[in-house]
């Protein structure tokens, strides 16, 4: 299975492709966390081979601090990187929507 490096900036809707966003804007996520990416990858059956929360994507060095998201994952997946990134982005959106529904239901009680 192919292994590839995944940066949170590859999913960030606030960034342009120039600064590392790899997924289309319509499935990109605002401020994705390393934990969300890891949870989505595991939920899809991908294997997280390595995790380093302190690394910073070199493409982000010229940006303001609020746009810099630290961390990197090395993932092993049965698909190529582009398809896997899209699948992870869609899974994160799904997980966020579920969390929002649960949060909203708790408020109604």
TrEMBL record:
One of its GO terms (molecular function) is 7S RNA binding. It is found in: Cytoplasm. The keyword Cytoplasm applies. InterPro entries: Signal_recog_particle_SRP19, SRP19-like_sf, SRP19_arc-type. SUPFAM superfamilies: SRP19. One of its GO terms (cellular component) is signal recognition particle. Its main location: cytoplasm. Part of the signal recognition particle protein translocation system, which is composed of SRP and FtsY. Archaeal SRP consists of a 7S RNA molecule of 300 nucleotides and two protein subunits: SRP54 and SRP19. This is Signal recognition particle 19 kDa protein.
